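Shipment paperwork, digital attachment
Item: protein structure file
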Amino acid sequence: MSNELEAAAHCPVCQRSARKGRISLGFLWRRLVEEVVGDRRSLRVTFVDLMRRPGEVVQAYLGGEELRYFSPLKYFLMVLALSLLMPVPRVLDGMLANIVVQTGRFDLAQAESFIQDWNALLYLPMLLVLGLVTRYFYRAQGYNYAEHLVIAAYGWAQLSLLTVLGFLIANMTRDLPGIRMGSVLLFALTPVYWFWFCHRVFGQRGLPGLLRAFATLPCAVLLFLLLAAMVMAVIRQA
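Attachment content:
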């Protein structure tokens, strides 16, 4: 009898706790726990499987199995919100600040402060650029642009989350040299994750596949900076 009651208390489709009557604080807490650390379609499961088998996560969504993991949009927006709450300095911040200074409306200190506070939103177009670049380099795979956006959303969100985690670990362990070096290593390995992500998702082996993976990120960065410079040039002329 208890098993029947337990089954009835969960949605038969997504296996999450069903609501009985009005919303309570207890229900909200249970749903929050399920969203973050649950065994099905949670932030934890999506993050862990993107580290272990990213190709399976991507194919699950592209194949219509949307109840296994967070959707790419949901995962990306959650990581974006986390990045806004905990701004993390990025390698491109200095270059972007110099481009902003060229408009003549900000000095370097103001530009750097603004970019550090809002870099998660400022780098949002990077997702669209990354989708274009991966579609070009992996056009033989037959994915359309929308499917490449799904791939880019999962990959870029995971890169951002790893960067945030590395920054938090570095701040919390600044007085512990050994652990601090581990956080620095995490920062250094973040691009390596992208190369491995491309390898697992697109399934290309050998030197050609490795070269494509290495080329995608620098090309996306250069294209993003070029677009940023064009936008700032238009603003300067306005």
